């Protein structure tokens, strides 16, 4: 699970460097978020600009990551492709997350594992 | 292992093992087939979502290991994509699932799959015959479609 970490106005930015967030990688994604969020920063912005496809397992993993972070550290989502946006919209999970239309301008942090 | 049958521009037949990695490989082949046929992006997205949910459900729940076989056929017509998925795993009747609209505030981590399938697929039909699960459905495609020329 490739991720790049950044900082943007106090937020921790996690850019997912994968083209698919699906059932095959959902568990690895949650583990990687757990590792990445030892870095400070609030809120956590998940940049999905490279993700072309997400299924319900990927969505479930994002919800799991949100619950992992807890209410004091909101998880926000950025840069959804049309297919990913469709899954959020159909399930109405776009009402739960703050969704940024564009990727945040982030200062790069040292590479995640 | 995935195996795709001889190339036709309007028919895609392939099979894969019941592992999530195989399912992903097969989905990428489907995506390539639909793109090559110049299917509009919106319908490729729908097909990708439906098939990802159907195939990963079979891989995770239909078989007890990753050596089961899943067969897929997609036929392109001038205004629809017809699809059939077959497997010899456990019987599973989808008629009972996916009818309820998700309640986002419950923050569930699962249970969205069949709702997505029902939201996007038309004429979803399930039959169990001779130890085989057969699921058929179709996805409508825009009327003015480049395939109209191909299909004739």
Automatic annotation (TrEMBL), chain A:
GO terms for molecular function: anti-sigma factor antagonist activity. SUPFAM superfamilies: SpoIIaa-like (SSF52091). It holds the Pfam family STAS. Residues 21-113 form the STAS domain. It comes from the Bacteria. Transmembrane segments: none annotated. Belongs to the anti-sigma-factor antagonist family. PANTHER family: ANTI-SIGMA FACTOR ANTAGONIST TM_1081-RELATED, ANTI-SIGMA FACTOR ANTAGONIST TM_1081-RELATED-RELATED. This is Anti-sigma factor antagonist. The lineage of its organism: Bacteria, Pseudomonadati, Pseudomonadota, Alphaproteobacteria, Rhodobacterales. The gene is spoIIAA.
TrEMBL record, chain B:
Transmembrane segments: none annotated. Pfam families: HATPase_c_2 (PF13581). Gene3D superfamilies: Histidine kinase-like ATPase, C-terminal domain (3.30.565.10). GO terms for molecular function: protein serine/threonine kinase activity. Its EC number is 2.7.11.1. PROSITE patterns: PROKAR_LIPOPROTEIN (PS51257). Keywords: Kinase, Serine/threonine-protein kinase, Transferase. InterPro entries: Anti-sigma-factor_SerPK, HATPase_C_sf, HATPase_dom. It is an enzyme of class 2 (transferase). Residues 18-136 form the Histidine kinase/HSP90-like ATPase domain. The keyword Kinase applies. The keyword Transferase applies. This is Serine-protein kinase RsbW. The gene is rsbW.
């Amino acid at each position: 699970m490739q991720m790049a970490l950044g900082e943007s106005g106090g937020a921790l930015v996690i850019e997912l460097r994968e083209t698919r967030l699906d059932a095959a990688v959902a568990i690895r994604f949650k583990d990687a978020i757990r590792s990445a969020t030892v870095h400070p920063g609030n809120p956590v912005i998940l940049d999905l600009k490279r993700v072309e496809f997400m299924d319900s397992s990927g969505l479930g993993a994002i919800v799991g990551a949100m619950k992992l972070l807890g209410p004091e550290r909101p998880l926000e989502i950025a840069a959804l492709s049309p297919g990913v946006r469709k899954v959020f919209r159909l399930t109405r999970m776009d009402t739960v997350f703050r969704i940024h239309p564009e990727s945040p301008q982030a200062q790069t942090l040292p590479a995640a594992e | 292992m995935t195996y795709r049958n001889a190339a036709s521009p309007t028919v895609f037949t392939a099979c894969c093992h019941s592992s999530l990695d195989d399912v992903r490989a097969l989905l990428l082949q489907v995506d390539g087939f639909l793109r090559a046929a110049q299917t509009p992006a919106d319908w490729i997205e729908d097909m990708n979502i439906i098939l990802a949910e159907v195939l990963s459900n079979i891989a995770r729940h239909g078989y007890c290991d990753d050596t089961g076989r899943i067969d897929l056929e997609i036929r392109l017509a001038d205004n629809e994509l017809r699809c059939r998925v077959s497997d010899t795993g456990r019987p599973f009747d989808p008629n009972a699932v996916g009818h309820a609209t998700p309640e986002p505030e419950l923050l569930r981590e699962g249970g969205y799959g069949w709702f997505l399938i029902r939201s996007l697929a038309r004429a979803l039909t399930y039959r169990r015959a001779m130890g085989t699960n057969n699921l058929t459905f179709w996805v409508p495609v825009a009327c003015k479609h480049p395939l109209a020329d191909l299909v004739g």
